[in-house]
């Protein structure tokens, strides 16, 4: 009679059990790998990037009566000109986030690209500050930094929309916090971001489009002859117009 107590039989059973255990571990490891790959592929597939053109821009031109603007000129100005008085210039720019990014998305990275066309005064830091009130882009236009007569709906030094609605303070309502800064010098392309503050700004503008008033660009307003000239969305050269690059995940 065959006996299960034989040494050979015991070794055979142990060997089969060991093989089954190893196969089980291999199977679980393979399944875990498949799950990891599925999650990784899903994450990559959900990450998207959109490049947005500016929806409006303007220059706030220092003027106590708010009679000057430059809504649809080919450039906007940031810093201080050589004028003896009223030389401060501040840029305004906004992008239609809700139109380009699906509602409910998680914004992960944001960069702003601007082209510097004229750069007097050497290197300067140009800051982005979130604007806190709505503003307009009328039909005023000039190639120079002195501005043109403001038209209805223009943002000016004292108006959000010329010539009825006012900023709460001359020069625009904007956050004291800096969303991003870049050192600009020679003519060419410059990038702001990505920073956590820019991501937070764009996320809020996506979730609450009614709060999307864009950024104000602030330069050196102390020294004369430091005003930087950036290509606006109305530049005839499409390649130098402002661009906002937004990366996001669709939930």
What does this structure look like?
- By secondary structure, the chain is α+β, with helices and mostly antiparallel strands.
- The chain has 2 domains: 1-47; 54-249.
- It is built from 3 helices and 15 strands.
- The strands form 3 sheets. Strands 1, 2, 4, 5, 6, 7, 11, 12, 13, 14 and 15 form an 11-stranded antiparallel beta sheet that branches. A two-stranded antiparallel sheet has the order 3-8.
- Strand 4 and strand 5 (88-94) form a beta hairpin.
- The protein is elongated, with a radius of gyration of 29 Å.
- The mean pLDDT is 89.
Distance between the termini: 68 Å
Low-confidence stretches: none
Oligomer: single chain
Residue share in β-strands: 25-35%
Overall domain count:
2
Please provide the ordered H/E string of secondary-structure elements.
Answer: HEEEEEHEEEEEEEHEEE
**Treating each run of at least 4 consecutive H or I residues as one helix, how many helices?**
3
Mean pLDDT: 89
Topology of helices and strands:
Elements: H1 7-46, E1 47-53, E2 56-61, E3 68-69, E4 75-80, E5 88-94, H2 97-100, E6 106-118, E7 124-130, E8 148-149, E9 159-161, E10 165-166, E11 180-184, E12 188-193, H3 196-207, E13 215-218, E14 228-231, E15 243-249
Antiparallel strand pairs: 1-15, 2-5, 3-8, 4-5, 4-14, 5-13, 6-12, 6-14, 6-15, 7-11, 7-13, 9-10
């Amino acid at each position: 009679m065959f006996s299960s107590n034989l040494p050979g039989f015991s070794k055979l059973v142990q060997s089969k059990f060991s093989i089954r255990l190893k196969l089980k571990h291999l199977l679980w490891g393979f399944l875990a790998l498949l799950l990891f790959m599925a999650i990784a592929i899903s994450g990559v597939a959900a990450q998207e990037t959109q490049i947005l053109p500016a929806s409006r821009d303007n220059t706030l031109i220092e003027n106590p009566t708010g009679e000057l603007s430059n809504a649809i000129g080919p450039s906007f100005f940031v810093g201080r000109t050589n004028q003896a008085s009223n030389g401060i210039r501040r840029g305004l720019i906004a992008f239609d986030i809700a139109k380009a990014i699906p509602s409910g998305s998680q914004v992960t990275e944001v960069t702003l690209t601007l082209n510097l066309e004229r750069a007097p005064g050497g290197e300067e830091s140009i800051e982005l500050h979130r604007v806190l009130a709505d503003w307009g882009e009328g039909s005023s236009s000039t190639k120079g930094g002195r501005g043109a007569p403001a038209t209805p709906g223009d943002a000016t030094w004292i108006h959000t929309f010329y010539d009825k609605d006012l900023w709460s303070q001359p020069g625009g309502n904007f956050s004291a916090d800096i969303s991003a800064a870049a050192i600009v010098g020679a003519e060419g392309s410059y990038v702001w971001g990505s920073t956590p503050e820019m991501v937070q700004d764009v996320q809020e503008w996506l979730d609450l489009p009614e709060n999307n008033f864009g950024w104000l660009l602030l330069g050196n307003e102390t020294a004369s002859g430091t005003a930087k000239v950036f290509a606006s969305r109305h530049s005839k050269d499409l390649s130098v117009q402002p661009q906002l690059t937004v990366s996001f995940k669709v939930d």
